[in-house]
Amino acid sequence: MRKKIWREAGASYLLLSPTLFVLLLFIIGPILFAVFLAFHKVQLLGTATFEFVGLDNFKRIAGDLRAKIALWNTIKYVAIVVPCQTILALVLAATLNAGLKGQKWFRIIYFLPTLTSSAVLTLIFMWMYNENGLINHLLEMFGLPTYNWIGDPKMALNAIMMMNIWSTAPFYMVIYLAALQDIPDSLYEAAELDGANSVQKFWYVTVPYLRPVTSFVVVMGLIGTFQLFDQSYIFSGGSGGPNNSTLTVVLLIYQYAFKTLGTMGYAAALAVALAIIILVATLLQRKFSKEESLY
Amino acid sequence: MKNKLAIGKALLYVLLVLYAVVTMIPFLWALSSSFKTLEEIVSGTISFIPKHFTLDNYKQIFIEQKMFPRWLLNSVFIAVTVTVLNLLFNSMAGYALARLQFPGKKPLFIIILAVLMIPVQVTMIPNYLILKQLGWLNSYQGMIVPTMVNATFIFMMRQFFINFPKELEEAAALDGLSRIGTFFRIVLPLARPALAAQAIFVFMASWNDFMRPLIILSDPELFTLPLGLNSFKGQYISYWNYIMAASMVFTLPVLIIYAFFNRYFIKGISFTGGK
Q: What distance in Å separates residue B25's CA from the closest CA in chain A?
């Protein structure tokens, strides 16, 4: 009997060995290493040297103007993109779920942006955002003001926001679609008996029923949007410009870690701070949605 | 009453069609630009149908940038290898966590759940230093080994195997098959739906990844497509006809996969969507 237990443990660890290897060497090890780096000044020239500096890296964040700009840009981005993409996803899913003919085809089309790589999407949108490009022409056609989307510091981040709402909403739409299948018809029938119209049914049956899914979508959205990098990098050629308007926290971390010398420890401190911010935002959201569900 | 319903239906259709147009315009615009001449691109006329339809851009990008086929190959090799290894290793781990008894099981499961919460940026810098120490910067293994296991999909496979009927494995055990033999011969072949969904997500994530190759790869020979495309844009910034042609070439393989397997995409998301 004892032999059997040992054999099962052996088999388990054999099956788990690749996972344990990657987990230790590339995830858990690096997490501890990141915390270590955050308290050190790192020099990579020649042989790498680590000099203990205590909390200096964290104190430096408070006095770093670019860090403040990056944080502000990221928060603005999160605060606008997460609600917009969540609402858009919900509305699209509810519309697709209304039982119309051809909805399968609409679903296939809507999902396209999710498949396309961020690099390709950003290039396509940069071409459309061109001063002489499609979007400005369309705006002109409707008599609306045109903008220098890429070059104007006031517009560049907005341009990225619109692009990313457009490209990530379909992903969350599919999550909502799956959840919509589970709403029992009897709920809608009861609402109909009470004389509810379609909008009322959506507002009083669908939205409350989907609250746990919405919570999940918002948490995923928060985690995703706080990590904005690819689009900002490609949009600005890695600089976060014009005038730091597309500089995000992750782009700043990248610049300090890999583009300037001797600031890798500071970059690690920023990364640890970002992880804490994301964690706190996630926990806050969880707490809020729990309190809401009491009413 | 009937009239009202018809109006509602029509409104919904209008909404659906409008959003379909909003989704399609960027792709159609990119596609049409890729068939236009540079003069037409520069002139700034707005027409979805090219005035002088040309395939020159597609020819020219392969002449101007000799590395394109190489980048394509790198991307395919890395994405396929990462996908195959993920399917195997995540299932192995998920099965052990779902079905086998061993010391340290509970803490390990908690650690895997906790890892799900850690953003990549935290591990990115140490990963770079570790890969540097191993001499794996600018190498395929530097791209593949750190991504060959994924906590999200270990979790997903565990959930899948927990709901798997036990009788099959018990029958296999009676036939004298070992636990590992049972896993490879009986369980894994039956896990196909979960594997298909996982394969698509892992492949897409690897194929589209921008940050990891940006940090790990500096040798143009080893670039993946997103990285190559970004450097191509740097060189030909006003040649939007070339950039759009290159973008289309890189998007096509994924669209073909999607055309055949789109139902797995939808299923896969519902899988990961916490169900």
A: 10
CB contact under 8 A, B208 and A118: yes
Q: Given pLDDT bands bounded at 50, 70 and 90, which one contains residue A289?
A: confident
**B271 within a domain of the structure (yes/no):** no
Task: Examine the pLDDT at B76 and tell me if it is beyond 50.
Answer: yes
Q: Mark yes or no for CB contact B125/A116 under 8 Å.
A: no
Helices B68-99 and B56-64 cross at an angle (nearest 10°) of 90
Of B119 and A172, which is predicted with more confidence? A172
- Pick from A1-5, A179-183, B197-201: least confident: A1-5
B233 three-state secondary structure: helix
My answer on whether B208 and B157 are in the same domain is: yes
Question: In the A/B pair of chains, how many CB contacts fall below 8 A?
Answer: 263
Helices vs. strands in chain B: H and E counts, helices first: 15, 0
Q: What are the phi and psi torsion angles at B83 (to 5°)?
A: -65, -50
ipTM over 0.85: yes
Report the C-alpha gap between B187 and A21 in whole angstroms: 24
In a domain, B91, yes or no: yes
In chain B, pLDDT over 90 holds for what percent of residues?
Answer: 52
Distance set, CA B19 to CA A91, A93, A216, B38, B49 (Å): 11, 12, 24, 30, 21
- Whether residue A150 contacts residue A129, with contact meaning beta carbons closer than 8 Å, is answered with yes
CB-nearest to B46 from A110, A125, A137 is A137
Binding-face residues of A in 52-81 toward B, CB within 8 A: none
> Which residue of chain B comes nearest to A125, CA vs CA?
B26
Question: For position A142, which CATH number holds?
Answer: 1.10.3720.10
Please name which of B89, B112, B131, B154 lies closest in space to residue A30, comparing C-alpha atoms: B131
Whether residue B3 has pLDDT greater than 60: yes
Q: Are residues B91 and B27 in the same domain?
A: no
The neighbour count for residue A212, using CB atoms within 10 Å, is 12
The candidate with the shortest Cα–Cα distance to A14, out of B93, B145, B108, is B93
Segment 240-279 of chain A within 8 Å of chain B by CB: 250, 253-254, 257-258, 264, 267-268, 271-272, 274-275, 278-279
- Whether residues B121 and A274 touch (CB distance < 8 A) is answered with yes
